[in-house]
Amino acid sequence: MGTDYLLRNAVWEFTLDCNLNCLHCGSSAGSSRADELTTAEAEQLCRDLQKTGCLGITLMGGEPLLRQDFWRIAALIRDLGMELTVITNGTVFDRETFPRLRSLTPRAVAVSIDAAQPELHDRIRNRSGAFEKSLAFINRALGEGLPVTVITTVHKLNIKELPAIRELLLGRQIAWQIQVAGSEGRRFPRELLLDEEEFYSVGMFIAATRRKYPRTQMPVIGAHDLGFNSQLLDNISLAPRWSGCQAGISVLGIQSNGTIKGCLSMDDSTAEGTLRELNIAELWQSESAFPYSRSFSAAEAGENCAGCRHLDSCKGGCNEMSLMKTGLLHNDPYCFHRIEQRLFAKELRNPFYRLLIMLRHKFTTLSARDTAGKL
Questions:
Q1: 99-125 confidence digits (pLDDT tens)
Q2: Closest C-alpha to 221, from 182, 187, 257, 175
Q3: Residue-wise over 316-330: b if at least 16 C-beta within 10 A, else e?
Q4: pTM of the predicted protein model
Q5: Burial of 109: CB neighbours in 10 Å, binned 0-12, 13-18, 19+
Q6: Close Cβ partners of 261 (under 8 Å, ≥ 6 residues apart)
Q7: pLDDT tens track for 43-94
């Protein structure tokens, strides 16, 4: 018997080959895997994803533009009626790259920018001149009319860069996704991870930016690892509310050798198998697949989340963060609700203050609905 899960986005690590050596890379990319999917296998994967009803595919790396069959596979994705997103470091291009990308009508072309200071960005990316090349890529892509997104991965080295990056992007019709670094990669030292206060400050920055600037000037969101259930901050995510980890629910991760996960950022303990062993369309429809997401029960929550009033809907937060920080699923310590209970316990116990919060949230919700109705 099949399932009713709609696969909205398959995130595909197209190759592990990369011309950079980024500090925070969760895949520790650099050299391609010896057993990466062949072109024929990649084409079959696209057809199988279409059979699942997949709405879109994100090609990332490594650096996806280094793979020789990139244009062939990207064109097939579009020919099969699925949306295409490309995530690149923005340093691999020639004059033909941008018109060829435009011909694919991608949903987004995302470029990584981790600092407004060229020297710091280059240090994080471990390549002199990387900032200037990435900025040139962005300018050329905008000139070609491509929908550009900038992705910034935040850690202790660059958290103070957020205001300057905002100034760099402001008013340029560039979407901005802010995410936090994990320590899954071999090159990233854990001491550079954000602490809870720094993590919360990133949420405050995003919320303040969204209040200060209209979406037309500065469309910014927090990624899946930022949140959740704040009593004090306006929603900072693309979705109207957090409804639990979407790994195996609406998203899928595929490594360059065909290993399938619910989320590409999660460690290999969550792998369901490989494309060379099973059919991805059949896996997606299997009732036993991705049990940590599809069959979650409150009894599985770790100590950080057990007993929380949001548990039934939140399901323990981001499982990638949960595994990285605690080694357990459904136990995400980096949760706005949890952090607020510690930092603002006195204020949140005050009935008058709680009433003000409730009224403010209602006003924000009504304003958001009114804005959406005018769009």
A1: 999 999 999 999 999 999 999 999 999
A2: 175
A3: bbbbbbbbbbeebbb
A4: 0.92
A5: buried
A6: 247, 252, 253, 254, 255, 268, 270, 271, 272
A7: 999 999 999 999 999 999 999 999 999 999 999 999 999 999 999 999 999 9
